[in-house]
Amino acid sequence: MKQITLFALCIVGAMLMCTTQTNAQLQTPEGSQRAQVMQRVGITNITIDYGRPSVKEREIWGKLVPYGYNNLGFGTSKAAPWRAGANMNTTIEFTHDVKVEGKDIKAGKYGLHIALKEDGMATMIFSNNSNSWGSYFYDEKEDALRVDVKTIEAPHMETLTFLFPKVEADNTIAVLRWEKKEIPFKIEVNVKGIVLEGIKNDMRNSAGFTQSNWDNAANYAFNAGELDQALEWVNSSISGAFFSKETFANLSLKSQILAKQGNTTEAMTYVDKAIKLGNVSQIYQLGTGLIGQGQKDKALVILKDNVKNNNGAWPSNYGLARAYSATGDYKSAIKALNTAMANAPDRFKPRLTGALEKLKKGEDIN
Known about the structure:
By secondary structure, the protein is α+β, with helices and mostly antiparallel strands. Helices cover 41% and strands 23% of the residues. The chain is elongated and about 85 Å long.
């Protein structure tokens, strides 16, 4: 208890010094330097701000960082967890609602504390109080969330470090590493839901007065598998508003949405509309997309016309070669590809040469 009291007096002294320095408008370095690390998942930012103490040959776990909840001899807390760093609160901030270890937590900034256990487990505590000094004023009533995690033995880390060693499309692992211990916790983000909700709100504001934004919104929804929403947004781009008009982009996208929904006949009517507005590269992309949908005969007709309508431009002949290849006519595919190679820029010829070799072996180039 004497050690805790002495430690508390040191803290009070440090706080008074900081107050004096603030009033005098002086800046001096902290003994444990402050750091901040941020990871984005989707469009959600996760930011951890913390002080970085060093081991300095001290015994950390169970000594400098006591297990469980303790009366630190200062402040209002009689059962304080570890502050997960040094000096002011360690904080973690989420710009959107997330899940931590499978449990929901709202967007916002939280004080981050950890209660270590002797059995290798740890309780991560997210407090609505993010402004206090350390955990001396910790109050369980202010908890927003508690989750239990398993600590891991790790190589020595002299200075306490938070990092995000694993990041995926909709989740990340945040880790505290210090001395020979690692404390990981998983953060999951509903990326699709957050983005779609954001788009809906944006479209009610100035972003909704620009046609290309409706195309971009429809593209995102289509790629996210939200076909009904994608169709609603692309329809707004095509007609019904002061900015609406038919373009290659929105007509071809609508054909893809309809095809994905199984409405192939209607989808092909929008393909026919789109090809009247597309340039050689756009028609190439549309035709090769149809090959991917299994519409090989339709693709062949479109890509033949692309050659005729664009004076045999090399991308049109490459597209035609892919259409012939899809139908199994490798002889015609080789002829079209040779024509493309004769006019293609040098930087594209290695790819075309590779495709030609495959055709000569009787292999599809799609």
